[in-house]
């Protein structure tokens, strides 16, 4: 039975390799073969078969030799620091089977096996004890690429690797307790943790350990397929380097908070036998579906929500480690946003409505009514919600990069947005809003378009987020009135601010302001000039357009690395969007044509100045104004 478990575990390792899209290089030395019935083969089989029990008795490190002369076999086996003897023994058993499968007749071979812990096994016909070996290279890597936001944290990642090498080589003492082992958990710019481990075999000198790990880092930098992936392994016969966005088995489960047992379960799932994997996935899926309890809504809401989209509070608490501060992405007047990981390993963003929030339950209901209806590549997907007791929670897809304002308005990050990316963000945002206005099942006015509500995915593609202020119109309805103005100062259109009238053209105005911010790298809400000719980014842009110097608006961070005709066309389009009269502003479908078709002639824009509006006069007294700028400006759901 134990042998069958080892074989199944070994099979799973290879199934896993094929599933996650890794690239593997040889673990066998190209130094000769032995015959199946040779004395060397008999000795090898004998000593390898004894390794699991020897390690369990001797501890996490064991070395030995058997035979004489050319038939002598030298072996070494070890597990990472902190491994339980029984777990270490089982892992070494898997490693032995892996060596036999991969290198059935080679006289030298090694392997680093991840199975409930991380272990190492090696054999050779010559003694290798105390000597560093940096050939052959064994590597695996995930097919998922995170280069876009790993590059943003490049220095932090490099510092982390240097620190790990220094910590690993500094372990001294007798051979029995010299572990040459270090881990690191650097937090990337997108608030994700990258887990990493380095280890040398304990027979090396500190200098040899350092040299070997430097070779691992050099291979990581030199091999294009390895650099920028979400996880991978680089291994030599004398040292080992592994990294992953998820805490992997053996190395990090000892330090994970006990409040989230699902994380531990996910780590164990990563390396169980194949049939166990299938059963575990099915069990987790069924359990997750059972946890999402049905909730009865008033009749008016029954057609706009699906009970299968409701999450149980316990599921949310498990995914976020009971709303742990370590999982917090941001907070504001609305409440807090947390990153979570479900039992099926899918990542989510959890938006928790604060009990004191001025936004209240109505905006929350707006978002729940849109849960099952909005599906577009340029919109953040609302996955579901939770309403239990006083808790009102929205569950979103997790978008790995921050919101646009963090790249656009922070001097240290503006350089990451070249013109090509900014143009793509403009076009993608326009397509997302067009979907809301015309192509979604409902006609939706967002009413709070701004840079902090545009999220960026791993490839810096835009996703419109936060529908707490959104309003639904009848398909044949062109505008609506309200006595409560919501949104953010600087983005609100004149007719909405002054008269409480909103329409799709209100969103167009906000979009125009957003485009001017993207081009200039300046925030409209706190824009100031040294002279009195302009009091906002909009009037500043109009002044340069009127004076024939529109490119003076361009962010200096771009230098001259942009297409001037493309930039001028975007400025022209933006000024059409922020015109005083709603009827003069283009629709989103026309805007997209303006952006993507150079043969279309754009009309002459009119002055965006509005009597009283630009002077800061109060809106009409008959309208109650409540400008809500308390939404999460710092990392809304991602």
Automatic annotation (TrEMBL):
Cleavable signal peptide: 1-25
GO cellular component terms attached to this protein's record: plasma membrane
UniProt-recorded Gene Ontology molecular function terms: ATP binding; protein serine/threonine kinase activity
Residues the record lists as binding ATP: 351
InterPro entries xrefs: GNK2 (IPR002902), GNK2_sf (IPR038408), Kinase-like_dom_sf (IPR011009), Prot_kinase_dom (IPR000719), Protein_kinase_ATP_BS (IPR017441), Ser-Thr/Tyr_kinase_cat_dom (IPR001245), Ser/Thr_kinase_AS (IPR008271)
Pfam families, sorted: PK_Tyr_Ser-Thr, Stress-antifung
PANTHER family the record matches: CYSTEINE-RICH RECEPTOR-LIKE PROTEIN KINASE 33-RELATED (PTHR27002:SF810), RECEPTOR-LIKE SERINE/THREONINE-PROTEIN KINASE SD1-8 (PTHR27002)
PROSITE patterns on file: GNK2, PROTEIN_KINASE_ATP, PROTEIN_KINASE_DOM, PROTEIN_KINASE_ST
Domain Protein kinase: 323-602
Residues annotated as domain Gnk2-homologous: 22-128, 137-248
One annotated GO biological process: defense response to bacterium
Compartment(s): Membrane
Full protein name: Uncharacterized protein
TM annotation in the entry: 268-289
Highest taxon of the lineage: Eukaryota
CDD domains membership: Gnk2-like, STKc_IRAK
Keywords, alphabetical: ATP-binding, Glycoprotein, Kinase, Membrane, Nucleotide-binding, Receptor, Repeat, Serine/threonine-protein kinase, Signal, Transferase, Transmembrane, Transmembrane helix
């Amino acid at each position: 039975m134990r042998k069958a478990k080892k074989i199944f575990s070994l099979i799973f390792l290879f199934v896993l390799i094929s599933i996650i899209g890794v690239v593997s290089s040889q673990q066998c030395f190209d130094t000769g073969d032995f015959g199946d019935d040779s004395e060397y083969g008999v000795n090898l089989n004998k000593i390898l078969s004894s390794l699991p029990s020897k390690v369990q008795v001797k501890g996490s490190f064991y070395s030995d030799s058997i035979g004489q002369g050319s038939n002598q076999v030298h072996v070494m086996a070890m597990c990472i620091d902190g491994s339980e003897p029984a777990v270490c023994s089982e892992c070494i058993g898997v490693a032995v089977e892996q060596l036999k499968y991969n290198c059935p007749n080679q006289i030298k071979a090694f392997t680093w096996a991840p199975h409930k812990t991380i272990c190492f096994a090696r054999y050779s016909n010559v003694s290798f004890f105390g000597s560093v070996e940096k050939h052959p290279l064994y590597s695996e890597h995930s097919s998922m690429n995170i280069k876009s936001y790993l590059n943003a944290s490049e220095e932090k990642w490099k510092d982390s690797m240097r620190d790990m090498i220094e910590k690993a080589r500094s372990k001294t003492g007798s051979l029995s307790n010299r572990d040459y082992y270090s881990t690191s958990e650097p937090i990337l710019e997108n608030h994700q943790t990258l887990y990493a481990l380095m280890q040398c075999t304990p027979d090396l000198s500190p200098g040899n350990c350092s040299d070997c790990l430097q070779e691992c880092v050099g291979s990581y930098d030199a091999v294009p397929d390895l650099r920028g992936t979400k996880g991978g392994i680089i291994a030599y016969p004398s040292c080992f380097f592994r990294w992953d966005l998820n805490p992997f088995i053996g190395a990090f489960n000892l330090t994970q908070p006990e409040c989230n047992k699902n994380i531990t379960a996910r780590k164990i799932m990563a390396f169980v036998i194949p049939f166990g994997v299938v059963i575990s996935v099915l069990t987790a899926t069924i359990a997750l579906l059972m946890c999402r309890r049905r909730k009865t809504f008033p009749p008016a809401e029954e057609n706009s929500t699906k009970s299968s989209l409701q999450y149980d509070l316990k599921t949310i608490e498990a995914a976020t480690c009971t709303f742990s501060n370590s999982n917090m992405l941001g907070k504001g007047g609305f409440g807090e946003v947390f990153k979570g990981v479900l039992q099926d390993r899918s990542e989510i963003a959890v938006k928790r409505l604060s009990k004191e929030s001025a936004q209240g339950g109505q905006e929350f209901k707006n978002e729940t009514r849109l849960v099952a209806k909005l599906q577009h590549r340029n919109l953040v997907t609302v996955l579901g919600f939770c309403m239990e007791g006083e808790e009102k929670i929205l569950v979103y897809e997790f978008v790995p990069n921050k919101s646009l304002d963090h790249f656009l308005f922070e001097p240290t990050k503006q350089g990451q947005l070249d013109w090509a990316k900014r143009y793509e963000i403009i076009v993608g945002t326009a397509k997302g809003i067009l979907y809301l206005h015309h192509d979604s099942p409902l006609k939706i006015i967002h009413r709070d378009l701004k840079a902090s509500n545009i999220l960026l995915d791993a490839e810096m593609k835009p996703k419109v987020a936060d529908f707490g202020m959104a309003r639904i119109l009848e398909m044949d309805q062109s505008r609506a009135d309200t006595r409560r103005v919501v949104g953010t100062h600087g983005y609100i259109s004149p007719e909405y601010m002054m008269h409480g009238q909103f329409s799709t053209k209100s969103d167009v105005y906000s979009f125009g302001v957003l485009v001017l911010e993207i081009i200039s790298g300046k925030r409209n809400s706190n824009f100031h000039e040294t002279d009195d000719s302009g009091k906002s980014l909009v009037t500043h842009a109009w002044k340069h357009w009127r004076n024939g110097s529109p490119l003076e608006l361009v962010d200096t961070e771009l230098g001259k690395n942009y297409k001037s005709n493309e930039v001028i066309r975007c400025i022209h389009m933006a000024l059409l969007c922020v015109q005083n009269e709603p009827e003069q502003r283009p629709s989103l479908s026309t805007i997209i044509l303006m952006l993507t078709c150079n043969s279309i002639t754009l009309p002459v824009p009119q002055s965006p100045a509005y009597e009283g509006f630009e002077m800061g006069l109060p809106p009409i007294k008959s309208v109650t104004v409540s400008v809500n700028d308390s939404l999460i400006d710092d990392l809304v759901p991602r």
